[in-house]
Amino acid sequence: HIRDSSAGATAAQLATMFEPFAADVTGAFGLRLALAHHLARLHEGTLVASSEGVGHGIQLALKLPSLQSIT
């Protein structure tokens, strides 16, 4: 898990934050989160974001399968 102290996000922003150039309260997430989400899915994993709202930062959780479950 990664937690930051950014401006946070609303529920509507969380729903679209993995789309390229999705907007956050300060402007835009750009391509970074879209690429990270895509890479997680390519490796059969997930990248999930949560926030307690504007002013409370964002938490990202990356889950990847173990090598044992892939073979």
Question: Can you offer a commentary on this structure?
Answer:
There is one protein chain. The protein has 71 residues and is of the alpha+beta class. The chain is 30% helix and 17% strand. The protein is built from three helices and three strands, in the order E-H-H-E-E-H. The protein has helices spanning 11-16, 32-42, 67-70; strands spanning 2-3, 46-50, 59-63. It has a three-stranded antiparallel β-sheet with strand order 1-3-2. The longest helix has 11 residues, at 32-42. The chain is globular, with a radius of gyration of 13 Å. The chain starts with a strand and ends with a helix. 10% of the residues are buried. The mean pLDDT is 83.
